[in-house]
Amino acid sequence: MTSIISIYRRFPTKESCLEHLEKVRCKTCDRELPRTTEHFYKCPDGKDGLRRVCKQCVGNAAKSRIAADPENYKAVVRRAESKPQAKMKRKLSRQKRYAANPQKYLSESKERLKRREQRDPILAKCARLRRNLIKRCREKGFELFPEMREISFYEKELLAVGNWLKGRQ
């Protein structure tokens, strides 16, 4: 426990005491930074509502974890993106981009599809089949089975057809 005398030695004036209260020392890099959300992430459990590690150190730690195990990071991202809130957020961002500039959005979308087709032709074909089926069902007022909304449903079918075609050649 610190004594009053040591506190007075550390902060001889009121201004120096207030200046100390306005700054926080990062636990990782030991830098003294202003006590703001510009430098520290929010944390409801903290005394002042901020984390004790600065944003830069948090970012560096995340980069090192990703570099150490990229496959685990990809799995975590896939799990997070499969949640309904993330899907809705992506959908809203697509709608905003389309509303801002429809021509640019459509051209970027076509370029993405071409790149996907070059990377993985079977997966691209599955996605195209899925889109066309959903579009036709909506036009006719049919409801799709839940498993038919997944790309894996079409991938299995296309692989079977591809294997059959290879056997015939």
Task: Please bin the fraction of helical residues.
Answer: 55-70%
Structural class: mainly alpha
Spans with pLDDT under 50 lasting ≥5 residues? none
Distance between the termini: 84 Å
Major sheet, described briefly? 2 strands, antiparallel
Inertia-based shape: elongated
Give a structural overview.
The chain is mostly helical. The protein has three domains: 61 residues, Wheat Germ Agglutinin (Isolectin 2), domain 1, CATH 3.30.60; 32 residues, no CATH class; 50 residues. Helices cover 67% and strands 8% of the residues. It is elongated and about 80 Å long. The relative contact order is 0.04.
Summarize the structure.
The chain is 67% helix and 8% strand. By secondary structure, it is mainly alpha-helical.
Give a quick set of tags describing it:
4 strands; 8 helices; Wheat Germ Agglutinin (Isolectin 2), domain 1; 169 residues; mainly alpha; elongated; 3 domains; single chain
